[in-house]
Amino acid sequence: MTAPARLNAQMAFLNEACRLKSVTRATTLCDASRPENSAEHSWHLALYALVLGEHAPGDVDIARVIRMLLLHDLVEIDAGDNPIYGQIDHAAVAAREQEAADRIFGLLPSDQAADLRALWDEFEAAESADAQFAKALDRFQPPNQNLASGGVSWLEHNATLDKVETRVGAPIARGAPALWDWIAPRIRTWFAARTPH
Amino acid sequence: MTAPARLNAQMAFLNEACRLKSVTRATTLCDASRPENSAEHSWHLALYALVLGEHAPGDVDIARVIRMLLLHDLVEIDAGDNPIYGQIDHAAVAAREQEAADRIFGLLPSDQAADLRALWDEFEAAESADAQFAKALDRFQPPNQNLASGGVSWLEHNATLDKVETRVGAPIARGAPALWDWIAPRIRTWFAARTPH
Ligand SMILES: [Ca+2]
């Protein structure tokens, strides 16, 4: 592929990526003014990685984590966001996301499509230390926005402390134990204050 | 500073950063559905850097460029966005942005505040190859969204080919000549089609 042909393919991918700004999530902004979209969420997560790198356990390569987080939600352009507290068919979602990854990364020149797809596959597999830290940040940001907004999306989705500990706490504790130690008492305090005595 | 105290400071910074999602820009999304905000713009630029790194001239460190782009607009939380075609008092804007950088980076632990502030200062100075490539991407993304949307924001701001070549073309040509070669004929074709014959 010549340089201009590569650039044509790369720009088709980058223009398609623009659509992630129109995919909305269950979590609101910190001020509860509106639901967050997946593009600004991805920016915020990359900034989390940049700032919180020192709390990653062991050998984590923050530049790779940032690249993963920039890409991690692109499949939602076709497959949508799946709220963490919803009842979902995991196999069906995974199949839709694989198809989405084929189509979207497939817009790129083939060498680059393979590289970025491998990075997304690694994130999804959540086995490497880099992917586990990236996944931990993806779970750590929403409860921070919930605590800031007064718990709007927890209330709306009838979240319970038990569900938060399982679906949010477990992946944070696995990929970034220091971050779970920091936020767990804050989450417990919020839920304790809502429990009728 | 102890580890939990550092984390308190870092989380205050990251929660404050959430406000960048509410700063709107002159450019619309590619589908013209609404104005773009500075947080999703920053994500898109970081993705541009990730994908277009091979077109950077000479010795550019793409991981540093991505970090710069993730941070570059944070000052807009206090200082707002300055549309590129507006008439602005450059000295007053620069002073407001310096104050904003003092306050916002100042939320971080002091060693990290100094590191990230230095990266933002380097971006603003636009002298290093990394900063010039980052600045070039910051100017390259909006005309791509304009071309995709049918030129909505060019029309709204009465942009002329001459202004686009000066304010957008010059910094792209300086930091990323291959990207200017690619987009310049597309921009000229769009403006030529709008000129009455
Ligand atoms: Ca996510």
TrEMBL record, chains A, B:
Hydrolase among keywords: yes
Keyword DNA-binding applies: no
Keyword terms of this UniProt record: Hydrolase, Metal-binding
Pfam families (alphabetical): HD_3
GO CC annotations on file: cytoplasm
Occurrences of domain HD (ranges): 19-180
Superkingdom of source: Bacteria
GO MF terms held by the record: 5'-deoxynucleotidase activity; metal ion binding
PANTHER family per the UniProt record, alphabetical: 5'-DEOXYNUCLEOTIDASE HDDC2
Name listed for the protein in its UniProt record: Putative hydrolases of HD superfamily
Originating organism: Lutimaribacter pacificus
Lineage: Bacteria, Pseudomonadati, Pseudomonadota, Alphaproteobacteria, Rhodobacterales
